[in-house]
Recover the amino acids of this structure.
């Protein structure tokens, strides 16, 4: 019988085992309703101690990937019904190392809904001090409009500043998840989303709205801004 797991080498043991098991579940090698192998089997196949195995399985429970059933056995769950946002970055790149278009569209849809509200709440709470911070980011971006990599970094900084200023923990955690997902495909998105990164006008409109505490104007400018990236990706996937 083939082994389920590969040996764990030169990595934090529980983290590395968690990543392997999570991948097996997401890829469908371990199917919903199946029992997870016992601690002894997992320990023997991966070469890690049982303490690390228990920690890895605990993380699978927290992520909504397995559940303890009668007799202390762990059953694999359907992550689409039980999983948390923690899984999103893992889903973006499939087991073959390719970007999953369906997941990208899902992330962009979530971003299109969330970004305008982050901008609006930041505008309500921010004021001149926050606007000054945003303008500093924009000043750097405007100095390198043809450097897409720099613009990409600047845009991420701009939105992270807004997310923190929104003072909404749910928005902040959702933004963190989207950022982690985005970084999985960072290089692949640089040129695809160029029009959005170069859209300084709408980012400036957000900053100006923050300065005036105009939530509606911030929401409108944010919606127009992120629509550029979503449209670019939609065109790419349609061509593919």
């Amino acid at each position: 019988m083939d082994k389920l797991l590969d040996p764990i080498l030169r990595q934090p043991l529980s983290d590395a085992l968690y990543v392997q098991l999570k991948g097996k579940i997401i890829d469908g090698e371990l199917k919903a309703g199946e029992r997870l192998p016992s601690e002894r089997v997992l320990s023997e196949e991966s070469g890690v101690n049982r303490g690390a195995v228990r920690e890895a399985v605990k993380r699978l429970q927290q992520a909504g990937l397995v559940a303890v059933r009668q007799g202390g056995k762990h059953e694999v769950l359907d992550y689409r019904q039980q999983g948390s946002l923690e899984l999103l970055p893992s889903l973006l790149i499939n087991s073959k190392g390719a970007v999953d278009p369906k997941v990208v569209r899902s992330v962009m849809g979530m971003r299109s809904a969330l970004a305008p509200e982050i901008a609006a709440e930041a505008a309500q709470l921010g004021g001149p001090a926050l606007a000054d911070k945003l303008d500093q980011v924009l000043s750097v971006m405007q100095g390198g409009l043809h450097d897409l990599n720099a613009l990409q970094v600047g845009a991420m900084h701009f939105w992270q500043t807004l997310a923190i200023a929104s003072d909404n923990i749910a928005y902040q955690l959702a933004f963190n998840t989207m950022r982690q997902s985005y970084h999985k495909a960072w290089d692949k998105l640089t040129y695809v989303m160029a029009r959005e990164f170069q859209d300084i006008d709408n980012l400036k409109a957000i900053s100006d709205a923050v300065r005036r505490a105009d939530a509606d104007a911030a929401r409108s400018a944010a919606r127009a801004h992120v629509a550029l990236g979503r449209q670019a990706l939609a065109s790419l996937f349609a061509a593919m």
